[in-house]
Specification:
Elements lengths: L4 E4 L5 E8 L5 E5 H10 L5 H11 L11
Antiparallel strand pairs: 1-2, 2-3
């Protein structure tokens, strides 16, 4: 995932990373500190991320023992 940072000011201040841009144009923002921690420790993929992964790699996935 490409990191895109934004700076907000107003009721919420600080730096955020755009985690998701939805079809209606709305954004899901995550504080930079949280995003950086997730990059180090990992997190569960969203349903959309999992579907995108399967669309790209699913045809090449094989059982763990390599048979198939």
């Amino acid at each position: 995932m490409r990191e895109v940072r934004v700076t907000m000011s107003g009721d919420r201040n600080g730096q955020f990373v755009i985690e998701e841009e939805r079809p209606d144009g709305s954004l899901v923002l995550v504080p930079v500190a949280v995003w950086e921690k997730e990059q180090r420790t990992g997190r569960r993929a969203t349903q959309r991320e999992w579907q995108d992964f399967l669309a790209e790699h699913g045809a090449h996935m094989q059982p763990p023992d390599g048979e198939g």
